[in-house]
Design brief:
It is a single chain. By secondary structure, this protein is of the alpha/beta class. It has 14 helices and 7 strands. It folds into 3 domains: about 110 residues, YqgF/RNase H-like domain (Nucleotidyltransferase, domain 5, 2-Layer Sandwich), CATH 3.30.420; about 100 residues, no CATH class; about 100 residues, no CATH class. About 55% of the residues lie in helices and about 10% in strands. β2 and β3 form a beta hairpin. α2 packs across α3, α9 packs across α10 and α12 crosses α13. The longest helix has about 40 residues. The protein is globular and about 85 Å long.
Length: about 375
């Protein structure tokens, strides 16, 4: 082929589009996007409405500047949840980006375009490695159910404390009649209280006491019904989509739901069981300097998942002979109770990961 033929051939070939990285600073009403080249050069910054149409406009705008395969998004579980789901549906890897640290903001300043550019550079440099949850399956439904349940439990506890505080200052005759009742009977009795018909200042206080007790008891019963319904829905969801989690000793529906929420609807985003352990805050962190080589406890991670693993371990210590034997053996080796529990939580995290994550996607050992 002659030089002229080569030049003619190359001029007709389609241009190769370079890959760019998208960064987004999310807010309730508007998202600010920035596109960064592989060398860190800013290709453009633009604002888009936080709507379905705005998501489409944002991606079209970004793709005009290159091929978009990766995106860093702030707040993928809050303001950026809708955008993250849209980008994942378009086969784009979405990474959760934390806000820039204070030292960087003191040096560079604070603005939405700067935050969007920092999000893109965090993905480009590899600092942002946490893949975003897809939030489009049964685990997202479980997350919503658990959110409603947790708020109902908190409100019911508050109402119970308030009802018992009213009983402390109630009329002695009423207090003595109700003080011997258990909680369930106490709430049922208070829900049927009717204020006396007589008038007077003392009777007005009695009327207010009876009315307050009745309203608080009715609120407690209503919240209890909601909690029971949500517990049933969560149990059915786990039994339908992850029944294997309920087979090992010590893992109940509540702990299973909490750990599923931590993993998300796309557990393949976690590269290994070690990454899941770090996500749950049960992986040791290197803390060495000079001749000293040691590790410290991980105080980060999802604390609710950490608490679920804690419940699993203590249940197994009471009921699982294998766990009890392990505890005795490590005690004889000189390990403290706290150290043994940390090891057991790490093993429990590994077991949960291997039960939930698809075997075909697990890395080879």
């Amino acid at each position: 082929m002659t030089t002229r033929e080569r030049s003619t051939s190359s001029s007709t070939d389609p241009p190769v589009r370079r890959e760019v990285v998208l960064g987004v600073d999310t807010h309730g009403e508007v998202h600010v996007a920035a596109v960064v080249s592989p060398l860190g050069k800013i290709s453009g910054t633009e604002s888009f409405p936080a709507t379905a149409a705005g998501y489409r406009q944002l991606l079209v705008w970004a793709r005009k500047r290159g091929t978009v395969r990766r995106a860093g998004v702030e707040g993928t579980g809050t303001f950026g949840a809708g955008l993250s789901r849209y980008l994942l549906a378009q086969q784009i890897q979405v990474f959760e980006v934390n806000r820039p640290d204070r030292s960087a903001r003191r040096l560079l300043g604070k603005s939405d375009p700067l935050d969007a550019q920092a999000a893109a550079r965090a993905v480009l440099s590899g600092r942002a490695r946490a893949r975003a949850k897809s939030g489009d399956g049964p685990v997202q439904s479980a997350r919503l159910f658990k959110l409603a349940k947790d708020s109902a439990v908190k409100a019911r506890t508050q109402a119970i404390n308030q009802l018992k505080a009213v009983l402390v200052i109630a009329d002695p005759a009423l207090r003595e009649r109700l003080s011997t009742l258990g909680n369930a009977e106490l709430f049922r009795t208070c829900a049927t209280l009717s204020p006396p018909d007589s008038e007077g200042d003392e009777d007005a206080v009695t009327q207010a006491t009876h009315l307050t007790l009745r309203m608080l008891a009715e609120r407690i019963e209503q919240l209890t019904r909601q909690i029971n319904e949500l517990n049933q829905r969560l149990t059915e969801l786990v039994e339908r989509h992850a029944p294997q989690l309920l087979e090992p000793v010590g893992i109940g529906p509540n702990s299973a739901v909490t750990l599923l929420i931590t993993m998300g609807d796309n557990p393949e985003r976690l590269n290994s069981e070690a990454s899941f352990a770090a996500l749950c805050g049960v992986s040791p962190i290197e803390y060495s300097s000079g001749r000293r080589s040691t590790r410290r406890l991980n105080h980060g991670g999802d604390r609710q998942a950490n608490a679920a693993l804690h419940r699993i371990v203590f249940t197994r210590l009471r009921h699982d002979p294998r766990t009890q034997a392990y505890y005795e053996r490590r005690t004889q080796e000189g390990k403290t109770r706290r150290e043994i529990i940390r090891c057991l939580k790490r093993y429990a995290a590994r077991e949960v990961f291997n039960l939930v994550r698809p075997v075909s996607l697990a890395p080879a050992l």
